[in-house]
Amino acid sequence: MRICLTIAGSDPTGGAGLQADLRVFQYFGLHGLSAVTAITCQNTTGVEEIFPVEAKALESQLRVLLEDIRPDSLKTGMLYSKENLEVIQWAVQRYSLSNLVIDPVTVSSTGVSLLEEGGLDFLRERLISLAKIVTPNIYEASLLTGIRIDKIEEMKQACKEIKKMGPEAVIITGGHLEERAVDLFYDGEFELFDSEKFPGEFHGTGCIFSAAITANLALGKNTLEAVRIAKEFLKKAIKNALYPGRGMGILNTK
Prior knowledge:
single chain; alpha/beta
């Protein structure tokens, strides 16, 4: 049995966060583990309030879990505090965890900050170097590198800068860059993914995408193969999105 771990915030809609990650793991036939970093109060129209989990509680969750079960891959989502990022670094190194996917969540789809001051520097300097692959969107890549991204050449520059931080690979998702969904993968060589962009607003696309990559790394795929499969999975999930509320669509992972 292959196992994936998500370390992320809780989303009561199930559209993002650890609930969405677990849905993806199940789709790919994997057993999902989870550790909670924050409790969010949100619906399909936005995030109203965030209650962060203390670093001591996160450390305890991971210690008890990892002393018993070893995941084949893991991913991070919303970590919220610098202290929580420090716990992730401790856990990855203490338990020699591999196939780490970092989704550097900084802001929600509706503009609410999901990472406290100091967290971005820690990501750059200490955590990204432990990753198999990092999956920022254009905004997150800009924050990490200081490069304003308006076109493909600037995406390439940002990919190179993030790769210098130490991960094996990086993919910058650029769905908001052009009329089509343009994503750029880099592991020393570039691979451009250009696909149809679906109209509408969707919740949890970054979570679903990074979770699908995590699942496929656990299944033995390399980073580029995992990204290709995750892209196709994401397209299908967006195309068949559900609308249970008054706001954004929730991706259908069935």
